[in-house]
Amino acid sequence: MNAHEFDRNFSRKVKSERIATHEVLTDIRKCERERYHLVLGFRTTLDWLVKRHGYSETAANRRIQASRLLTEVPEAEEKFLAGELNLTTLHQVSVITRAEEKRTGAKIDKRLVIAKIHKKTAAQTEQLLRAEFPDTTIGKDSLRTLSSTDSRLTVDIPQELRTKLDRAKDLLNAQTADVLKQALDLLLATIDPQQTTPPSATVAVRVPRKLRRYVIQRAQTCEYVDPVTKQRCDSTRDLQVDHITPVAKGGTNDISNLRCLCGQHNRHVAEAHYGKNHMQKFRTIREPVALSH
Ligand SMILES: [Zn+2]
Question: Which of 62, 88, 120, 201 gives 20 to 30 Å between its CA and that of 56?
Fold first, then answer.
């Protein structure tokens, strides 16, 4: 085999790699849409890609972002298959346009952006996007685990947010982390659909606080298990108490009928019992239970 034959062979392999990646992206979108990761015992699509399929977090995140953009801009699919766009450039566009939309509140025509970065390298794309969206900063957030109890958050914030943060710190006489905690508690109590429970369970049989704390401490992590693969979620985030047999179907507060689930899985099983539409009609705020060690 000479160099040119070798190169032609290689070119075919690159093409099939691109086709396979495109199929992977399509499936990731499908998983996100259908919420298959919840059935399979994972809290998020990212968890499913990392824990089940061995992607690094960066690689998984890049694919998730790229897959969202491909769904939104079908023209990008052809360009991706032709090798004129790649995972990195799709990810860059997806992240910055989303951040810009959030900042301005206006929808961006992503087809125009895609047309501009067509056949560009990652570095050229970055330059182009920075010029196009000079007021949006991205990519500098980092959240690192320091120990089982602490993490370090580094984030770039605009002056307007800095002013608000300083004011809240003054008023509360608190450090940034305390302000952040209090602000998030307030926010999540209003907007988080996971902090909700079906009305029958709330009204008829509310689990006493002591019992809820016991169930959560007994389990320590989300007890959802995929009945087929036995994959257990094990998330420690947003833990809530769930009636295994729902109250509406005769379930009681007996300790054997209670289990600990993460918010995502609690909502998932509630939707399975009560139906999605029914769940969306009722948004009762549930008191959070702190896990004390
Ligand atoms: Zn879970």
Answer: 120
**pLDDT digits 0-9 by tens, 146-205:** 766 777 787 777 778 888 888 888 888 888 888 888 888 888 777 776 664 444 444 446
Residue 82 lies in a domain: yes
Rounded to the nearest angstrom, the distance between the alpha carbon of 63 and the centre of ligand 1 is 22
240 touches 260 (CB < 8 A): yes
State how far the Cα of 48 lies from the Cα of 31, in Å rounded to an integer: 9
Q: Is 281 exposed, middle or buried (0-12, 13-18, 19+ CB in 10 A)?
A: exposed
Q: How far, in Å, is the centroid of ligand 1 from the Cα of 67?
A: 24
243 shares its domain with 210: yes
Q: Could you count the other beta carbons within 10 Å of the beta carbon of residue 131? A: 9
Distance 229 CA to ligand 1 centre (A): 15
Contact at 8 Å (CB) between 224 and 265?
yes
Is-above-0.90 flag for pTM? no
Where in the sequence is the domain holding 252, given as residue range(s)? 193-281
How far apart (Å, rounded) are the C-alpha atoms in residues 35 and 39?
7
Q: 10 and 120 share a domain?
A: yes
Query: How many Å lie between the centroid of ligand 1 and the Cα of residue 91?
Result: 27
In SS3 terms, 161-198 reads as: HHHHHHHHHHHHCCCHHHHHHHHHHHHHHHHCHHHCCC
How many CB atoms neighbour CB 236 within 10 A?
A: 14
Question: What is the total count of domains within the chain?
Answer: 3
d(CA 208, CA 193): 21
Q: Tens digits of per-residue pLDDT, 97-122?
A: 998 998 899 999 999 999 999 889 98
Amino acid (one-letter) located at 180: L
